[in-house]
Amino acid sequence: MPTPLAPATIALIKATVPALEGHGLTITSRMYERLFADAGIRELFNQSHHGETGSQPKALAQAVLAYARNIDNLGVLAGAVERIAQKHVALNILPEHYPYVADALLGAIQDVLGEAATPEICAAWGEAYWFLAELLIGREATIYRDLARKSGGWNGWREFMVESVTQESATIRSFVLVPADRQPVLQHEPGQYLGLLFDIPGRGALRRNYSISCAPNDRAYRITVKREASPDVPAGIVSNWLHDHAGPGTSVRAAPPAGDFFLDRGTDAPVVLVSGGVGLTPMISILETIAATAPERPTWFVHGALNGHVHAMGAHARALTDGHENLHAQVFYAEGHAQEGTDGQPAEAGLITAEWLVTHTPREQATYYLCGPKPFLGALVNGLLRNGVPLERIRFEFFGPADELIEAPRQAA
Fold first, then answer.
1. Is 168 a catalytic residue?
2. Which of 77, 94, 237, 397 is the most exposed, fewest CB within 10 Å of its CB?
């Protein structure tokens, strides 16, 4: 554990809260400008989170503000620290990378706040940064050690080959990845993701996280990827390359499975898996696991797609639930009227709602697992809370960095 922060430091950090409320996004945007001036450091980051939406600077601004507000009660940030540590492990972030962020953050504070960033303020933020950095470095060291010790585990980047490709819908493909050394792989927790490193001609080294869409096994991983609309924006570079160029024999590098969003296998309580679009990927992993190992566990797989044209893995989900009294599947199509889904069963017309969920699933006992786009999550998390589902039974995964709209339900509990 790092040395506790001095009371004077805590007081100075809390005194900066108004400045962070007014200038936090400007500070974090400037921090990334300074940080990315070093090409080697820039390559450590998923640039799809730094494109037109600027989602990562917004998320970091909220995280810095939350840290300042709770500097005297850091226990409330334990979940956020764990999510950050898991993301860092998936990106292979190491202790030697932290000084670069420290320099960029403190420099950005001085650039934006000018004379208000007194030597005392800068010293306090330097101490506060390294306190948090040491917490993360310690947790990440434990995760790295545990991953390497497990059967099939490893640290850093390991070469994998694409074994097969399956067209799941008009916009979504699955890629089965096997290790180039043909040795066993670490069995992931159902719901976790892989950090992947791609060497794309003309683009350099690019990092992305993709949820694993198969049940745990010791042979292979499957990722299921939606083609983004444009190959010329950061979010679309890798997905379009995978769809257009990746086939059997294509080489990629992967970090071990990571993430704190996964099925609780220590209970037989009911589970409701709710996904939107390609957010079904971790849910398929969870559903495959339950169907194979605990089909008596009451489970609802509820998926929303725009229409049948883009609905992926519908027949697969239906095959997993058919023949099992306690496993249920339902699909919603946002476009058009009720119709037959690609799973051969009637599809509900419209969007999934919290009201539908609490009416058709056991609200008093179930844990709700959610994955999908930000508006989807915002509506359902808040809707479930309004309908009496306690926060501890609502778990969600978000594509990209969770920002204030996603974290708000957690803070409201």
1. no
2. 94
